[in-house]
Design a protein that fits this description.
About 30% of the residues lie in helices and about 15% in strands. The chain is of the alpha+beta class.
């Protein structure tokens, strides 16, 4: 059992409210006519356990959720890619959530990285595979 309160009736959107993609994803989700719970990472701290659960739902490691090309990351660690372990990646996401590589949307037990705002269609459209409709 996970720590995230998930529902098939609601989309949870984890995003950076200052990023253009984050703003577009929020607008897209809110205009789609489904219930949306937004988690602005600049305002709400996500726990390490929650980051781990999110990564598991995406079938990814927490390390790949960190954008090592982000200016803040480069200011902290330089131009070279570094090898992060899970705890290091969680620490970076907690202290510098704007380094999240893409917004993440969850509906029920399905999670996606929104590389574009229209990726949210996978969770909104009635024909979305694997998403039971209310």
């Amino acid at each position: 059992m996970g720590v995230l309160a998930k529902s098939n009736r609601e989309i949870i959107l984890f995003y950076d409210s200052k990023s253009e993609l984050g703003k577009k994803c929020r607008a897209y989700a809110e205009s789609a006519g489904v219930s949306v719970r937004t988690v602005d990472l600049l305002q709400t701290k996500v726990t390490g356990t929650e980051w781990t659960e999110i990564a598991e739902m995406l079938n990814l490691s927490v390390q790949v959720l960190v954008d090592q090309e982000h200016p803040i990351f480069k200011d902290l660690y330089g131009e070279k890619k570094i090898s992060l372990d899970e705890y290091g990646a969680i620490s970076i996401l907690q202290k510098h959530p704007e380094t999240l590589v893409f917004p993440i949307a969850i509906r029920g037990n399905i999670a996606i990285q929104a590389k574009g705002s229209t990726d949210l269609r996978k969770l909104i459209d009635p024909d979305s595979a694997g998403i039971p409709q209310p």
